[in-house]
Amino acid sequence: MDKFIKSNALISLVANLVINSVIPFFILRNDTVIYLKQGSPILLETILPAVFISAFATCLITFFLMTKKRKSGEINLPIMPNTQWFPKAIFEGIVISLVLGVIAFGIMKLIENSVENVSIPVKITLIISSITGGLTGFITAFIAANRASKI
Predict the structure, then answer these.
(1) pTM (two decimals)
(2) What Cα–Cα distance (Å) separates residue 36 from each residue in 32, 56, 76, 113, 126?
(3) Per-residue confidence (pLDDT) for residue 142, from 0 to 100
(4) What is the DSSP secondary structure assignment for residue 117, as one 8-state letter?
């Protein structure tokens, strides 16, 4: 199980690094800068969706993979063949997304209140979004694996 948890976390990290740079790239392709707190678009509008989507998607995928591997015997944790994992995965995905989203929101607000309004080049914004999404996916993979092991 430890091997699955570690590999799942690394795959989640890499996948979320890529996804959270590609999607914002297309959304922000007509912008040259992103503003920290005033103007449009602002950094918070880029970061929060990355956190919510990364956490939710990673949780669903982790629950799916872990349940599949448990049912096939690849992971030695007994599970009933007719176990319904999807409702629990949805619930956990929402909870994890909200918790990590609130943390990200709080950090962003602290930064906004500590610094003057600045414009951030889109390339830097993409890097910030990518790292934020990647770390969110990495953390979520561990939490979700732990919770999926208990169904």
Answers:
(1) 0.90
(2) 13, 25, 48, 10, 14
(3) 96
(4) -
Residue 16 has pLDDT above 90, yes or no: yes
Rg (CA), the chain: 17
pLDDT at 41 over 90: no
Residue with tokens 């007719």: 82
Q: How far apart are CA 71 and CA 111, in angstroms?
A: 45
Stretch 24-53: mean pLDDT = 91
Helix (H) or strand (E) holding 104: helix 86-114
Using an 8 Å Cβ cutoff, are 119 and 34 in contact? yes
Q: Is the dihedral of CA 95, 90, 83, 73 positive or negative?
A: negative
